[in-house]
Amino acid sequence: MADEIVATVVTIVNPLGIHLRPADLFARRANEFEATVEIVKGHERFDGKSVLSILTCAAVQGTQLTIQAHGPDAPKALAALVELVSQGFGEMEV
């Protein structure tokens, strides 16, 4: 089970997309886990634990990304990251 790759598709919902603050939040959350985390956009892959790499994916509002996690705590990492994205990185009005 440790070798299992878990993945899900998310849509960027916050109006400004992934800029520095959301990229930092994503990387910090991803680094809380042992699992390797990648963001996939089209045919490109980005390191989910690197702020700079996340920024280069240039994800605006409405962009669909696949978040993949691989490792012993991959399901927990994926769930935490999906929650962060679905809540608009805390930038959405409640």
Task: Furnish the topology, listing elements before pairings.
Layout: E1 5-11, H1 20-30, E2 36-41, E3 44-47, H2 51-55, E4 64-70, H3 74-86
Antiparallel strand pairs: 1-4, 2-3, 2-4
Helix pairs in contact: 1-3
Would you mind describing this structure in some detail?
With 94 residues, this protein is of the alpha+beta class. It has helices spanning 20-30, 51-55, 74-86, and strands at residues 5-11, 36-41, 44-47, 64-70. A four-stranded antiparallel β-sheet has the order 1-4-2-3. Strand 2 and strand 3 (44-47) form a beta hairpin. Helix 1 (20-30) packs antiparallel against helix 3. The termini are far apart. The model has no long low-confidence stretch (mean pLDDT 94).
Please tally the helical runs, counting DSSP H or I stretches of 4 or more residues: 3
- Quickly give the structural class: alpha+beta
What percent of residues adopt helix (DSSP H or I)?
Answer: 25-40%
Q: Determine the N-to-C terminus distance.
A: 37 Å
Number of strands: 4
What pattern of helices and strands is seen along the backbone? EHEEHEH
Shape: globular
Taken as a percent bin, the fraction of beta residues is 25-35%
- Indicate the mean pLDDT: 94
Radius of gyration: 12 Å
Unreliable stretches covering 5 or more consecutive residues = none
Q: How is the biggest beta sheet arranged?
A: 4 strands, antiparallel
For the biggest β-sheet, the strand order reads: 1-4-2-3
